[in-house]
Amino acid sequence: MAWLYLLLAGLFEIAWTTALKYSNGFTRIVPVIIILVCAPVSLYWLSVAMKSIPLGTSYAVWTGIGSVGAAVIGIIFFNDPVNFGRLISIALVVLGMFKKVCQAAFLVQLNFQSIRKENIKLRHS
User: Fold this and answer.
1) How does DSSP classify residue 28?
2) Single pTM value for the model
3) Measuring CA to CA, which residue among 19, 93, 31, 21 is closest to residue 63?
4) Ramachandran region of residue 79, left (φ > 0), alpha (ψ -120 to 50) or beta?
């Protein structure tokens, strides 16, 4: 469930950063309201996810979701330039997030195995 919370946090981060672009330097009220709502919601879901996911992993994935999301939104809606370097950079961020998720899953598996071994030792004692 923590990964779902982290995904929600990332999606809200994309929403508030997109609203930041639309706010025109905090001069347009509706985007500013979206920022004021979405930014704290994003941080809330991040904090909930951090109860189960290590700090480094959760923060890296959260910022990765926001970075990739903002880059894609910029390309689609704001005509940000699309070039090989930008696409490679986005791909590297996605790859880094994937590595962190896999690393966290591996550590959870190792922890589960060590707990299981301890329980087996206790039963045979």
Assistant:
1) S
2) 0.80
3) 93
4) left
Instruction: Judge contact between 38 and 15, C-beta under 8 A.
Output: yes
* Domain parsing of the chain, residue ranges: 2-124
| Residue among 74, 62, 70 nearest 104 (CA) | 62
- pLDDT tens by residue, 36-74: 999 999 999 999 999 999 898 999 999 999 999 999 999
* CA 3 from centre of chain: 9
Return phi, psi of residue 90, to 5°: -60, -45
Instruction: Report d(CA 8, CA 62) in Å as an integer.
Output: 9
Between 103 and 79, the more confident residue is 79
Tell me the two tokens of residue 95. 């790859």
> C-alpha angle with apex 99: 94 to 103, nearest 5 degrees?
150
User: Can you list the pairs that 68-73 forms with residues at least 24 positions away whose Cβ atoms lie under 8 Å?
Assistant: 68/93, 68/94, 68/97, 69/10, 69/11, 69/13, 69/14, 69/17, 70/14, 70/17, 70/18, 73/14, 73/17, 73/18
In the predicted structure, residue 87 carries a pLDDT above the cut 60? yes
